[in-house]
Every structure is written in structure tokens, then in C-alpha cells.
Amino acid sequence: MTLDHKQQHLKTVRSVLSVAVSPIQYLVNLPVDMTRWFSEGLSSRQTLLEENTRLHAQQLLLQARVQKNTALEVENRRLRKLLGSSFKVADRVLIAELYAIDLDPYKHLVRINKGINEEVYVDQPVLDAYGVMGQVIEVNPIYSSARLITDPSHLIPVQVNRNSIRTIAVGTGNIHQLELPYLPNNADILPGDLLVTSGLGQIYPTGYPVAIVEKVIHNPGQPFATITARPTAHLNRSREILLVWSATLPPDEETAVDDEQEGTPQ
Prior knowledge:
Radius of gyration: 40 Å
Strand content: 25-35%
Structural class: alpha+beta
Order of helices and strands: HHEEEEEEEEEEEEH
CATH topology of the largest domain: Thrombin, subunit H
Number of strands: 12
CATH class of the largest domain: Mainly Beta
Distance between the termini: 135 Å
Helix content: 25-40%
């Protein structure tokens, strides 16, 4: 050992012995290495499973948020159109929402989530971002009912925007169609003409779009032409609507104002 330490005479022998003993060292350390490898494998697998579960839950949450954001984006787009429409009218407006429809196929009635508490009144005009939808026919404290312009019992005074010819548009019971039954055969009206409210009848303010003329049939020997038009409002799709207060007060409020003026000393 002294000679080996001083002069390194047994270096080769030690190298040979190290090679011979290495398999024994490997076998001795094998249980410890296997235990460590197995523990690390289980730990890594458990970590991966937990991370996979967390990422899966996060993915579902993000997908739900994306779907909600998509719905909000569509709703935001509708509201922007609606607000854009409200900026074009000079009257006071209130955004409301449709939440029920009448299931009777012969009636085109809807229910609105605004009522007396928001100063909604009978005969108040109802619009969407594209045109006239109808008018309020019944009010309650928290909701109102409205009749659409396509209801068979609904009439709306209109005029041709191109030349101001006035007539009446009548509901047909078809959500996509109105009739103009009182125009003579020689009336200057053509397919594509825009019909707007005429302001007669003191319900609908002047100039709101109502329908586009689709068909004009002249009937020889008959006093009136057969004319049909398509409503500009999205009657079966719009969910957000506008309630309009025109510059003219509703009849009951006008009466109240007149009474106050008459009772005020001069």
C-alpha cells in the first residue's frame, strides 16, 4: 500500500478490480435506483394527471366564456343598431325587450318587459332598428302587450316615400306581408318603393320606415290595385325594441295638460 501510494505500482491492478467489481456495485444499487425511479414515475404521472385535469377544466371554462362572449357580441351588435336607430329619431325612446309571444296563429301579439312604471301608455309606437313593429295595446305595472303591424286587425297610415301618396297598410296575418287595398289602379306606386308612416291618426310619428312594396298588380275593371309589401322591421327576429314617446303627448296626458291650463288663473 505504501509503494502503491508513493509510486503508483498497483494502478493497473486497481483499474482491473474496479471493472470486475462494477457489476456487483450495480446490483447492490439496483433496488435503491428502482425505488427512486418508480417513485419519480408515479409522482410525474400523478402530476401530469392533475395538470391534465386542471387544463381540461380550464378549457371547458374558456369555451363557455367564448360562447358567452359570442352571444354578448351579437347582442351588443343588435343594441348598437338599435341605438343607431334611436339617434335618428328626435323623440324620447326607451329600449325594452320582448319576452313572450301570443301562440294564437291568428293574432300577432307580443309581450314587452316595460309597463306603467316606465310610463308606457296604450297606443305607444313600438320600433326595432329597422322600422315600425306595432303599437302597445295594453299596459300593466311591469309589462305591456303590443300588436304587430302584420296582425289582421291592425291598420297603419303610410305614405310612399318617393311621392308622398298616402294610404293604409293592413296586416294580413302573414309575418312577412302587408296589403295596401285602397290604392286605385292608376296610383303611382312601384315595387321597391319605401312606405313610411304618414303621421295621420296621431299614433305613429311621421317618417318611420314601415315596409317595402313587393308586388303591384293592376286589375282592369276593378277600382283598386292589388299591392303587397314586406315589413322592414324584423318582426320574427328582433328581441330588443324601442318604445317611442312622440312630441305629441298621449291623449290622457294632453287632456290633463289642457285641464291644468284651463284651471290656471290668468
